[in-house]
Amino acid sequence: MKRICVFAGSSTGNDPIFTEKTRELGKTFAEKGIELVYGGAKSGLMGVVADAVLNHGGKVTGVMPTGLFEREIVHSRLTHLIEVKTMHERKAKMSELSDGFIALPGGFGTFEELFETVSWAQIGIHTKPLALYNISDYYTPLVQLVEHSIRAGFVQKENRNLIIDESEPSILLNQMLHRKV
């Protein structure tokens, strides 16, 4: 894996563990020579992961719609910045550039990106691995919801395997590397 797209919150959340573990993931990216592809902002966990990759000598590509430049405030130290017109173009470009996806804790935007990506995998638009970086059990309720939807007959049991759920960066990346979707 050369590039991984990370979906992350534009805030850091209430618990310092989110920032600490996000830095750990960014450092692991740099150590393994994996380029970060993300939304391009300097705020929140988005900025934390970008800073961690850059601070450890890694590469970071940000993709941001022009309309968000002021609101999200573009990260100034990116290796590459790709400007697009719309959020749809942003997601398509991040997907095109990436060999896999990781969702860090975040809000509605992160959830939307996560579910669109898993939906694309479910219908065969891509075969790239997708992981939840489950810091401090942040995604455990979501995993329980997915399992509930399987029991209720709305998600096929085999599609549970589309989502890796892990809280340790090295293990998460290793699982992504060996995932066959």
TrEMBL record:
The keyword rRNA-binding does not apply. One of its GO terms (biological process) is cytokinin biosynthetic process. It is an enzyme of class 3 (hydrolase). Pfam families: Lysine_decarbox (PF03641). SUPFAM superfamilies: MCP/YpsA-like. Keywords: Cytokinin biosynthesis, Hydrolase. One of its GO terms (molecular function) is hydrolase activity, hydrolyzing N-glycosyl compounds. One of its GO terms (cellular component) is cytosol. Its EC number is 3.2.2.n1. It comes from the Bacteria. InterPro entries: LOG, LOG_fam. Gene3D superfamilies: 3.40.50.450. The keyword Hydrolase applies. NCBIfam families: Rossman fold protein, TIGR00730 family (TIGR00730). Belongs to the LOG family. This is Cytokinin riboside 5'-monophosphate phosphoribohydrolase.
